Amino acid sequence: MKEKTILLDQQAIKRALTRIAHEILERNKGTENLLLVGIKTRGVFLADRLGEKIEQIEGEKVDSGEIDITLYRDDLSKKTDDDQPLLKGTDIPIDVTNKTVILVDDVLYTGRTVRAAMDAVMDLGRPSQIQLAVLVDRGHRELPIRSDYVGKNVPTSREEIVSVDLKEIDDKDQVSIK
After folding, report:
1. Which DSSP string do the residues of 71-134 spell out, in sequence order?
2. Which CATH number goes with the domain that contains 18?
3. What backbone torsions phi and psi does residue 45 show, to the nearest 5 degrees?
4. What domain range includes position 59?
5. 20: helix, coil or strand?
6. How many helices (DSSP H) and strands (DSSP E) are in the chain?
7. pLDDT of residue 88
8. How confident is the model over 22-72, as pLDDT tens digits?
9. Among 47, 94, 135, 170, which lies 20 to 30 A Cα-Cα from 107?
């Protein structure tokens, strides 16, 4: 079995999120009409951290929320009765209409999770645009989706597993590959 390799440690994750926060502000010319939406589960914590970084940089709080894409997954029909999805709830406290929604996730792989998240956001209103921020882009897209903001690009094989651990639920910050 292949050894686990650390791709990003706590400091590297912090630097990547700081860079992404600056890129978001630069591209959007500030915080006006921004809405950070974390994709459950780890994307929510990353969105919170990005919001904190943006507030530190700009001195303005950015609205944020979280989205559960469970019911929007394209593999629900393949689930058995014993393997039904667990709903975790969506909480977006403001109207997304005419907002620049920045979806935040930990790993971008096939693009199917992001497609489901876009569908979920569109069911809530009509944002002016949707952007995507991910901590790790590992390639192997099955849909024509790309990230606007990337912490680290990591070429992988389909057999490799990229794991993101965040202190909020995993008691440590690191990204590893096995």
Report:
1. GG-TTGGG--GGGPPPP---B--S--TT-EEEEEEEEESSSHHHHHHHHHHHTT---SEEEEEE
2. 3.40.50.2020
3. -70, -40
4. 5-72+90-177
5. helix
6. 4, 8
7. 62
8. 999 999 999 999 999 999 999 999 999 999 999 999 999 999 999 999 889
9. 94
- 148: which 2 tokens? 């606007």
Residue 80 pLDDT greater than 90, yes or no: no
Alpha carbon distance 108, 143 (integer Å):
11
For 63, the token pair is 């609205």
Domain assignment of residue 77, yes or no: no
Whether residue 79 is contained in a domain is answered as no
State the average pLDDT over residues 83-103. 82
Other CB atoms within 10 Å distance of the CB of residue 144: 7
Q: Could you tell me if residue 81 is inside a domain?
A: no
Q: What mean pLDDT comes out for the span 125-131? A: 97
Closest CA to 66 of 111, 96, 86, 97: 96
Who contacts 8 (Cβ-Cβ below 8 Å, separation ≥6)?
16, 135, 136, 151, 152, 174, 175
- Residue 82: inside a domain, yes or no? no
